Amino acid sequence: MNTYSRLPFAFNPKESFFEQLGDWIGDVFYDILPEAGLELRDEQIFMAFQTEKAFIDKKIMFAEAGVGTGKTLVYLLYAISYARYMRKPAIIACADESLIEQLVKEGGDIDKLSKILNINIDARLAKSKDQYLCLQKLDTERSKEDYEDVFDDIHVDLPAFVHGNQTMQSFYPYGDRKEYSHLSDPTWTKIGWDSFQDCFVCDQRHRCGQTLSRDHYRKSTDLLICSHDFYMEHVWTYDSRIREGQLPLLPEPSTVIFDEGHLLEIAAQKALTYQLRHDVIEDLLTRLLENDVREEFAVLVDELISHSMHFSFELKQHAKTVKGSNRKELELTSNLTHSAKEFVQLISRLEDEIVFESEMYTIDQYQLKIVEEHLDMIHHALKIFVEQDNLITWVEEDDSGIKLVIMPRLVKEVLKEKVFSKKLPFVFTSATLSTNESFTYLAESLGIEDYLSFSVASPFDYAEKMRVVAATTTDDVEKLEVTKNLLEQTEGKALLLFTSEEELQTFKKGVQDDASFAKWNILFEGDQEISQLISVFQHDVNSVLAAVSLWEGLDIPGESLSNVIIWSLPFPPNDPVFAAKRKASTDPYSEIDLPHMILRLRQGMGRLIRTHEDQGVVTILDARVCKDDRLRTLVEGVLPEGVELVKQ
């Protein structure tokens, strides 16, 4: 079948593709969708013909569309058609894994579009590495004396080819986090892939579910759906993977669409982040000593391992706990900096010695290459740490020990070079891309200089359908009591949004200690895989969902979500990332804290009304809204037209 016959409309190659595409898009919105029972939306049609410009000119487009515009259907129509025309898949990068699941779920937008247009849409998921089972970690957990029985069940249910050597076996993807939706996040963390796993030396990598999933999703002909994090990891690892003779994580796309695109900068910072931990460094260097090496080389390796342990001790001594964050602030003293410099010098010496040692051919060359790649990364990260330029750094501590995290403060230069220099249609969509009706802030933070943009308002009658209340609660006890009354009024059907894991756990304990909450099925983020919780919440109409990560993207139309309770105003956390941003600002409260809070608040309130039939109430349990005139004015300024803030 040739490309033209695969297009969802009759195509004449002698005429303009975009003129024919535009005609078909018009038919879809004016005839096909209404015939299928979907309403005709002027806002959606306006968005469609604005978005077309990005594809015609291969430009960057900021497409700000209010809730209910139907922006997903718009970009899907263009993405699928353009992918088939260009013979390259379109990449749709979503803010996180839960948004991906909503896009591809049964009854979701892709499924609906496929049925309405009567076409098969080849949409495949490219999930982040941490969404897959790690066979090495599973084996490690099962080797412990006291481990969870569920790990035996997981091992038994693995595909036969994982541990079998039979010929003519059929391999297929497996090990997705969603397959283990019953596991809590802490349990999954024990067996799920993490950044300290060395896949290069894993003897099971060719039977790994993560590896097999890549073989599967790379063959997509229409849509390849991933998270922002995974897309940015693809960008940053592209050159190194090519150097190592590996395929990039993602194939070359026809277009890239960033859903909830205002969150891309955070993903870019995260992808460029370095993480160092002593036990991983020690394991890496110990491999060298397993070979027949010179004595002076072995002494240098031992010295480096010893200094790595000392540096970890120094980090622990200089780490300060930050309330409300799992990140610890690092006090950068002269002692700590001196220790880091010594570390850098020792690695430089070892890298020089490795060159000489490699000429002796006493170390396996493949293994040596792996060690060199890792050492180069560690060396680079520590040099950045020593220089302290354009840097955010902190430490985290868990059962595995202390971890140094090094993140760039600004990523716009790298994004400009590695991403937006490509001549492709890049489309950013969200209900919140602009600040004070300008896209300048977002564009500058991403290194984007030339772009198209438009804004289209929501078609919903918020004045008729939505109430927003500010409660004068002052502490957690009062908030708990008010929440109980709110749940009584709507018989559950509520989404509770928290700004931190600490807040969520405080609420969870309060619920467990108060038997009167038992009448509602309250679902807590972290107790199961997130898309499973969302599914239960949607189908169990009177249930309640308590979450930290669902301020954006959650789409639950109908009665199941009639009540949004915001535990506190979503100001940024007091952690090292935002501390660094505040230090670089002349007016941190106005330039960092308030814009972040207002953006998140707009997103959180946007969870309530998803269709013309929806109605309900948003309650903000933060007394500052009632007591601080500036805050109240800002909150009132982002309310939908016709909606007033009611004080209770």
UniProtKB/TrEMBL annotation:
InterPro entries: ATP-dep_Helicase_C (IPR006555), DinG/Rad3-like (IPR045028), Helic_SF1/SF2_ATP-bd_DinG/Rad3 (IPR014013), P-loop_NTPase (IPR027417)
Annotated keywords: ATP-binding, Helicase, Hydrolase, Nucleotide-binding
Pfam families: Helicase_C_2
One term of GO molecular function: hydrolase activity, acting on acid anhydrides, in phosphorus-containing anhydrides
GO biological process, one term: nucleobase-containing compound metabolic process
Gene3D superfamilies for this protein: P-loop containing nucleotide triphosphate hydrolases
Occurrences of domain Helicase ATP-binding (ranges): 30-309
Residues annotated as signal peptide: none
SUPFAM superfamilies per the UniProt record, alphabetical: P-loop containing nucleoside triphosphate hydrolases
Family stated for the protein in its record: Belongs to the helicase family. DinG subfamily.
Protein name: DinG family ATP-dependent helicase YpvA
Organism: Halalkalibacter akibai (strain ATCC 43226 / DSM 21942 / CIP 109018 / JCM 9157 / 1139)
